[in-house]
Amino acid sequence: MPVYPLAMGEILHGVVKEREWIRYRGYPGLMDRSSPSPLTGVQPGGHQLRREVVVHHQRERILAAAVELIAERGYRAVSVADIVKRAATARLKFYDNFSSKQDCFFAAYDRAFDEAVRRVGEAVEAPGASFPERVSAGLGALLDYIAAEPGLARACLVEAPSLGPAMQGRREQALAGFAPLLRGGRQETGEAELPESVEESVLGGLYWLIYNAILAGQPERIEELRPELVEFALLPFLGAAAAASAALQ
């Protein structure tokens, strides 16, 4: 998307907001004469470190503002102007980082799922743990993350379908990242003859169970889903009775 010419007033407004934010976030000396300009990032000697810090935090503020607004209002009700205002930056800075609102959302979505996959992956790597124990640990780590970031979870899970076909491939790719959660289930439980698509079906079902819980608007109760999710995940591999028993442990 092209960057349209900006009024000088908006540019100056953005500079002022950048300075206010820098002071608020506690970067002493960043506005000193001996420090790099907030516009060029260059300090005596030509080092670019300060500019890199400022640019990084500009991007972080924009992403945080987008997530907050989308969680509050819904994806379709949020505009780039809304995001820029919440982030206290200039429109030019937004388009320095993202080509569109959708591009900004994708960046937040991808990072959120990467972090969720990382946490689940670490949780299921416990040495000596059985398959049910690994599933329980992995789902526990996922729910802990969702509980800690309710706005992010709502934006990425509840609002993502608003983007329609543009999200389909991303959602499938994101779910595939959780494959380690069910790794070894067939071999350890003796259910090697299960349909090839069973892991994909389980992950899709877990997604919609969590989606419905967040949609209900009670993120503080998300961690209570753990037994239900564990039982659902183990059911094809252990059978109903064993899955229910394992979910209670």
Residue ranges: pLDDT <50 for 5 or more in a row? 1-16, 18-46
Largest sheet: none
Radius of gyration: 22 Å
Give average pLDDT, whole number: 82
Number of strands: 0
Termini separation comes to 53 Å
Shape: elongated
Q: Element order, helices and strands? A: HHHHHHHHHHHH
Helix content: 55-70%
**Structural class given helices, strands, pairing?**
mainly alpha
Number of contiguous helices: 12
- What's the number of domains? 2
* Proportion of strand residues: under 5%
In short:
With 249 residues, the protein is mostly helical. It has twelve helices and no strands. Mean pLDDT is 82; it is low at 1-16 and 18-46.
How would you sum up this structure, described in words?
This protein is mainly α. The chain folds into two domains: 8-99, Arc Repressor Mutant, subunit A, CATH 1.10.10; 105-247. It is 64% helix and 0% strand. The chain has twelve helices and no strands. The chain has helices spanning 8-24, 49-73, 80-87, 91-97, 101-123, 131-148, 150-158, 168-176, 185-189, 198-215, 226-238, 240-247. Helix 2 crosses helix 3 (80-87) and helix 2 (49-73) packs across helix 5. It is elongated. The model is unreliable at 1-16 and 18-46 (pLDDT under 50).
